[in-house]
Amino acid sequence: MMLIKINPDAPNKTILEVAADIIKDGGLVIYPTDTAYAVGADMLNKDAIAKLDIAKDRPEEKNYTAILSDLDMAGRFCDLMPSEKKIVNKFMPGPLTLAVAKKDNIPDYIHSSYFTFRIPDCVIAKEIAHLSDTAITATSANISGEPTAYSIDAISTALKDKVDLILDAGTLKRKKISTICKVEKGKVVILREGAVSEIDIVDVL
Question: Which CATH number fits domain 2-204: 3.90.870.10, 1.10.645.10, 3.40.50.2300, 3.40.350.10?
Fold first, then answer.
């Protein structure tokens, strides 16, 4: 396991390329997002996801959310309805996660029907996704059931010992988790309450 300190406002591109290469090779990377620390793996690599399940002691039936770099990348994994594009354009980058109908290239071990993603307001997370050229997992950097981590020191040693790289951007500001929603029959359905309110999402539609 490597630990590298990184500037959250002006990250070194070489460090980001190292993180991306590890993910492309099926490894695990702890990295900062705009809400908390997360563990990144290539969502399309079944072996990497199995490794992540073990590292987090996570039930296999739980689904993973993806971090993407931009709307163009989202188009590779899902076909967004006009209403969904409105939500993305209004709230992303930011603390909103959207569940949408997936394309066939998203394997069933991720979800049988949906592709759930967000574009974070965090240059490190977005650049790692861009350089990895894949959907990377956005799961929190903790053992399943443990508290959310806002600093590297708060992450369990049991998890840190099972990843290939840790990017330490210091202590993150505590923020609300992302709201998770989907659009069903033209109506907004909130799957998890978070930083963006249902009223704000409905107003966009």
Answer: 3.90.870.10
